[in-house]
Write a structure and sequence with these properties.
With 385 residues, the protein is an alpha/beta fold. It has 2 domains: 13-184, Rossmann fold (3-Layer(aba) Sandwich); 187-228 and 270-381, Up-down Bundle (Dehydroquinate synthase-like, alpha domain), CATH 1.20.1090.10. It has helices at 37-43, 59-71, 90-102, 117-129, 143-149, 187-204, 206-218, 221-224, 234-257, 272-281, 288-305, 311-323, 336-345, 373-381; strands at residues 13-19, 24-30, 50-55, 76-81, 110-115, 135-140, 154-159, 162-169, 174-178, 356-361, 364-368. It starts with 12 loop residues before the first strand and ends with a helix. The structure holds nicotinamide-adenine-dinucleotide (NAD). One of its GO terms (biological process) is chorismate biosynthetic process.
């Protein structure tokens, strides 16, 4: 278990490093770290104009950040982007290109993405492609973006025919995850983010999973979650920030081992095979993390059916997901045949084979392409009640 800090007034900062064959960059997690942005950019040698792309819900933070960076001597252009998945579009991308080109962007400049995964993906893709690529800094503001989307260099937009179909790998120069930003995040978005944190525990870090269990059992987090991030409880905030840093460390380790998804990176897809299909079938009525929670439960039950893990794993995972406000029941209106059809069309299918990420124990998964269709059908029709 992670020991609680003695002095909760100390702002904990964790610095991790992504190291790939092509690059290296820091990922910094802490409460209040956004205030250090100017100094960190200077340390990285980023001295050109800054192009701050912010989610409209973070307009006030963007304004403060702009003022702070200007005081540090930077020239800053700021633009806000409408909130929501529909902004990962050619239209919004085009608007960013116009703004950058009309205002004279240069190769030495940097794009700063302030927002959730939508802004990170959109601004990241603009940075990857404008002038054949300029520096990118990720300033994630959702739990999902902190522990997943902002780290690893996947950027992109949606095509009318499918999500994330247009994109590029473009690693950021810096990721600064300020957990204070979570104070304004809607509780439902926060819960969806916890699904990804729990996922990271299952795929690679049993002690993270246990820390989440301990927290739910002993620190009243279970009772607190409907209210969202409790910024007034400094000790809890510090503790959660430490847990988030652990979850980020899983992503950092995975992408450091496998930058271009040729091996281990597929394990981050745990819960996503069925999760994605449900997300799509329900017309995005459920959040991504909510669908991942359902998909994790289904994947664990597939693992049990194949004799890869004991049924107790399913129960333990279910209990933890429930403690963080996540349900695992496949919604009644979801057509199982349609789920199966979508699964085989998923982007991650290789040579016609669906690659399932399945747990063997908490903290370890295997990738299997030989799951019989009958097992999947059986798991879908015996969804948790
Ligand atoms: N690049 C990757 O590796 C990767 C990985 C996972 C997901 N993604 C992408 O990430 C996207 C989902 O990201 P998300 O869950 O962060 O969603 P999001 O970016 O849509 O943000 C969720 C909502 O929270 C609001 N918001 C964000 N930060 C806030 C804050 N601090 N206070 C108040 N409101 C805030 C946003 O306006 C939005 O309404 C998807 O497009 C997905 O494809 C990318």
């Amino acid at each position: 278990m992670i020991a609680p800090l003695k002095d909760s007034s100390i702002v904990m900062t964790t610095t991790l490093t992504v190291t790939t064959s092509t690059t290296q960059y820091p990922v910094i997690v802490g409460a209040g770290v956004l205030a250090t942005l100017g100094d960190r950019l200077t340390e990285l040698g980023l001295r050109g104009t800054l192009w701050l792309v912010a989610d409209e819900h973070l307009a006030a933070v963007a304004e403060q950040t702009t003022t702070m960076l200007q005081a540090a001597g930077y020239r800053v252009h700021t633009i806000t982007v409408p909130s929501g998945e529909t902004s990962k579009s050619f239209t919004e991308l085009h608007r960013l290109y116009d703004w950058m080109i009309e205002n004279g962007i240069e190769r030495r400049d940097a794009v700063l993405a302030l927002g959730g995964g939508v802004i990170g993906d959109l601004a990241g893709f603009a940075a990857a492609t404008i002038l054949r690529g300029v520096a990118l800094v990720q300033l994630p503001s959702t739990l999902l973006a902190m522990v997943d989307a902002a780290v690893g260099g996947k950027t992109g937009i949606n095509h009318p025919l499918g999500k994330n179909l247009i994109g590029a790998f473009h690693q950021p120069r810096l990721v600064l995850a300020d957990t204070n930003l979570l104070a304004t995040l809607p509780p439902r978005e926060l819960r969806a983010g916890w699904a990804e944190v729990i996922k990271h525990g299952v795929i690679r870090d049993a002690s993270l999973f246990t820390a989440l269990e301990d927290l739910a059992a002993t620190r009243g987090w279970n009772a607190a979650h409907p209210a969202g991030w409790n910024a007034a409880d400094a000790e809890l905030t510090t503790y959660l920030t430490e847990i988030i840093a652990r979850a980020v460390a899983v992503k950092v380790a995975v992408v450091s081992n496998d930058e271009f998804e040729r091996g281990e990176r597929i394990t981050l897809n745990y819960g996503h095979t069925i999760g994605h299909a449900i997300e799509q079938l329900l017309g995005y009525r459920l959040l991504h993390g909510e669908c991942v929670a359902i998909g994790m439960d289904a994947a664990a039950r597939i693992a049990v059916a194949l004799g890869l893990c004991p049924p107790a794993l399913v129960e333990r995972q279910r209990a933890l997901l429930a403690a963080y406000g996540l349900t695992v029941t496949i919604p009644d209106e979801t057509d199982h045949t349609a789920i199966l059809r979508l699964i085989t069309r998923d982007k991650k299918v290789q040579a016609g084979k669906v690659r399932w990420v399945l747990p063997t124990t908490i903290g370890q998964v295997v990738v299997r392409s030989d799951v019989p269709i009958e097992v999947i059908e059986q798991v879908l029709s015996s969804s948790a009640g």
